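At this stage, I put together one protein's amino acid sequence and its backbone structure tokens, which the following lines show:
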Amino acid sequence: MLIGRSTAGKTTLCQRIFNDDIRYHKTQTVTVEHEVMIDTPGEYLERRGFRGALMVTSADADIILFLQDATENGTMYPAQFSTMFTKPCLGVVTKIDIADKKQISDAEVYLKAAGAHRIYRISSVTGEGVEELLRALDMPVD
């Protein structure tokens, strides 16, 4: 299950993983991609009142991925956000191809504070880091 604010790269990561054409479109509702990946709307994280929907949706997930856009200044994740889930939570720093080292480091700090157990750095555009993430998810690597 993918969680992150709007434009964090959740849908783009799904497209990269499944070799779909990368094209931006706004996720309006929870969608299941290729029967294995749950993509959630950014508003579920951004609006405190919707966070309960993330807990309910996580019942169908094996692993929760917290996505943090490295170019974003700040985070929407509350401290120890992972404690609301009964599943392992991993952190994914996105957009590393357009971020500087400090931005990437700050994104990792945000994800650690949210309770992510392990953190991966990726670019869905270039593919950098995606193979390592796929291995961690026990998904096939092309």
Q: What stands out?
A: The radius of gyration is 14 Å. Helices lie at 10-17, 43-46, 51-58, 101-114, 130-136.
